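Data availability (excerpt). The following record was deposited with the supplementary files.
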Amino acid sequence: GRALDLLQAVEQPPAEARKQEYMLLLGREGAYKLLGDRQAQAADLERLAALAEAMGDVRCSGEVAQRYAAYYDAISSFQAAFDAAGRAIEFGEQAGDPPRKGDGMVAQARALWRQGMFDPAEEHLLEALALSQQHDYQRGMGNSLQSMGNVRYFKGDLPGARTCWEEALATHRATGQRRNEAMTVSNLVSACASMRDLIAGRGYSEQALTIYQTMGDRRGEGTVLNTLGVAHIDLGEIRQAVGYFEQWLDIAREMG
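Predicted structure:
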């Protein structure tokens, strides 16, 4: 990008140049993640890992490992996601950074439950939640509760899942985690639909759609539009459902 070109044109000490490049790439990698451009995202992650190693900064290495875990999760490479999260945990321990360790444990739990290994995932999450509570790490508590809701949902414990997600939602809102707020609201849509609480589910869907549109997250927006279509069919509102499905298809075509 232009910011990186300008950075390279300015003479400065190598250590400072690496740090600035790292920060710029961190932002761009996050943007590629939201856009779903996995090839560009992977290239930035590779460069970020090299920069973190060159700087000898274990906190940065842990941050990159955490982002690699999210990348591998997005491409459904769950063992690689689990391994990357394990590296984040190790770097967190080396840096004396309990929040990073807790984030890594949540990412490992996600890799487990995405493969149907729900009991081991719940064990990871209980440990991560306890660690976050011990260090008053609010964002970690929200993420642990959100994933705990996922595990309980897939185990068939709908009331337990909804309780976890409602607690996670309150924490995400208190800490300004808009993307996590949107994902948790979307999860509550699923819980409400399964529990036949269709009015509440539609309300949550509309909240999630607004958040994703505000963030420019097209993939998230498409998922919610599909969910809204299903909700309106269940409510007997077929015309509205068709409108939501058409919008969802437009986004699906746009993203390939």
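Summary of structural features: The two ends are 24 Å apart (CA to CA).
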